[in-house]
Design a protein that fits this description.
The complex is a heterodimer of chains A (about 220) and B (about 290). Chain A has helices spanning about 1-10, 15-20, 25-35, 40-50, 60-70, 75-110, 115-140, 145-170, 175-180, 185-210. Chain A is mostly helical. Chain A has one domain (about 1-210). Chain B is of the alpha/beta class. In chain B, the strands form three sheets. Chain B has a six-stranded mixed sheet, sandwiched between helices. A five-stranded mixed sheet of chain B has the order 13-10-12-11-14. The mean pLDDT of chain B is about 90. The chains are: A mainly alpha (about 220), B alpha/beta (about 290).
């Protein structure tokens, strides 16, 4: 497992790691207005890093999977590592948020918020749900199709939330983020439970698909 | 002696190709060559051995185990060389090594760097900037660096210059000096096998034609040459293949002990090459 995680870390493209830097400017502006986007950022970057770590054409993906499958590792472990890597990418996403927050603080003295522990946990499980949609498609149809379909989900979700937030702001109503009941522990527990069920079902499906696949 | 590979009744149907009822075995401490024309099923069979392709029926055991039982242990003991580069093209050789090495319990950096030096490979160069020969050398260095008991190579000599081909064959011979090691490799360059292989498995259209000791094959087959008028008589002896021109004919016969006494006068017998055997088996009777 450790080797497979290290492989994903090593093979992640530089662009994958640098991508979060595009958030520096919006974050800086947000920090001036006292708006906190940590959950959106950490969730989106974790999803991005997870998906982008598999970047490639159908042919190059097949070669990559062929190489790893010829190494002393079972296909089940290989799939398992992909899902476990989601936790690693989420951690890296959180660290990159901290780095951006620190850079903004030392250069402008403005501080970015860190949210609550519960909201961070929900961010992790939200990322897992999206990644659960990606991997079965990835093992079945390859990166291009899977990434195309999966990346649309968070983008649409963030767009809808962002749009309705603006609408509520104009009407002086609560933002959609505030409507997300992070204080309601029963809701959080149910959300985590649903996320675990979806992730497990997705993992089993990916194992079945990949175990039968000819490389 | 212990069988390192046992393939029993393996079948696999792909989109436009089928491996049918493949059976053979391979003993420890030897070199076995897998020959066949392009599209015969060599790479598919090797992919089955590596569990990259899932077989529909039959059984494959390596070191007495099936992949279902212990694929991890099996692959720890195999050094595998692909027919094309499967490494991370954007990364240097050193970085590729750093990705692959942790997977092997017996990975030996000293052996790896010895081969890198021997093959004169630039460790800092990206894989995509290497020639085909250099990529193959790197693949061999990686395959040998964890001291595998079985080395499987898929068309390792294809597209290589004669100097490196010879060098590679010498390396393979060197490997089996250790009688615990075995080499299984596919090729359509049959002259390579004539130099180094102990056993030959011949596959055509997804079926095994034979899997025998090399010397036994040459005892079984003979080339018959003579004037074209004798072609009819030779065809009556059920040859593997016949080639006829206006003035002469050439045929490959099998079961030499029984057939040779029946040959007409005026023909001469020659030892065939593996290429002859492959050619006549694939082509059959042509005129």
């Amino acid at each position: 497992m450790k080797q497979l995680l290290l492989k994903d870390l090593y093979t992640q493209r530089v662009f994958g790691y640098l991508f979060p830097l595009i958030f520096i400017m919006p974050f800086y502006v947000s920090s001036l207005n006292g708006v906190n986007h940590i959950i959106v950022y950490v969730t989106y970057v974790a999803i991005w890093l997870s998906i982008y770590s598999n970047f490639g054409t159908t042919a190059s993906n097949k070669l990559g999977l062929k190489l790893v499958s010829s190494l002393p590792v079972t296909r089940e472990k290989l799939v398992q590592a992909k899902y476990c890597a989601a936790f690693m990418w989420w951690g890296i996403s959180l660290i990159s948020y901290g780095t951006i927050a620190f850079l903004i603080f030392i250069s402008t003295n403005n501080t970015l918020g860190w949210g609550t522990i519960v909201s961070l946990v929900l961010s992790l499980f939200t990322a897992l749900i999206i990644i659960s949609a990606f991997y079965p498609l990835y093992f079945l149809l390859g990166y291009q199709v899977a990434a195309g379909i999966t990346m649309v989900i968070p983008v649409l979700w963030f767009f809808i939330f962002g749009f309705t937030t603006v609408m509520y702001d104009e009407n002086n109503g609560p933002s959609q983020w505030e409507l997300f009941p992070t204080e309601n522990l029963l809701f959080c527990f149910l959300f985590i439970l649903v996320s675990i069920i979806i992730t497990f079902a997705s993992y089993r499906l990916s194992v079945v698909i990949f175990s039968k696949r000819d490389l | 002696m212990e069988n390192i590979i046992e393939v029993n009744g393996v079948s696999k149907r792909l989109k436009d190709f089928q491996l049918s009822n493949i059976s053979f075995h391979f003993k420890k401490g030897f070199i076995m060559g897998l020959i066949g024309p392009n599209g015969a099923g060599k790479s598919t069979l090797i992919r089955c051995l590596m569990d990259l392709v899932k077989i529909d029926s039959g059984e494959i055991t390596l070191f007495g185990m099936t992949h279902k039982e212990n694929t991890k242990e099996i692959k720890q003991r195999i050094g595998f060389v692909y027919d094309e580069s499967h490494f991370y093209e954007e990364f240097s050789l050193e970085r590729n090594k750093r990705i692959i090495a942790p997977f092997y319990e017996n990975w030996d950096d000293e052996t790896f760097y010895t081969f890198i030096k021997k093959f004169d490979l630039p460790l800092k160069k990206k894989v995509k900037h290497l020639s085909k020969g250099m990529k193959m050398k790197f693949a061999i260095a990686v395959a040998l660096a964890h001291h595998p008991e079985l080395i499987i190579l898929d068309e390792p000599t294809a597209g290589l210059d004669p100097v490196f081909r010879r060098e590679l064959l010498d390396i393979l011979l060197e490997i089996i000096q250790d009688d615990k090691k075995s080499v299984f490799f596919s090729t359509h360059i049959t002259t390579d096998l004539e130099q180094v292989a102990d056993f030959i498995t011949f596959i055509n259209k997804g079926k095994i034609i034979f899997s025998k000791e090399k010397d036994a094959i040459f005892e079984d087959y003979q080339i018959v040459k003579g004037p074209s008028e004798l072609a009819g008589k030779i065809q009556g002896l059920n040859p593997v293949g016949v080639r006829k021109t206006d003035v002469s004919m050439e045929a490959l016969i099998t079961d030499v002990r029984n057939v040779a006494p029946l040959l007409p006068q005026g023909v001469r017998l020659e030892r065939p090459t593996l290429e002859d055997i492959m050619y006549y088996t694939v082509k059959g009777i042509t005129s």
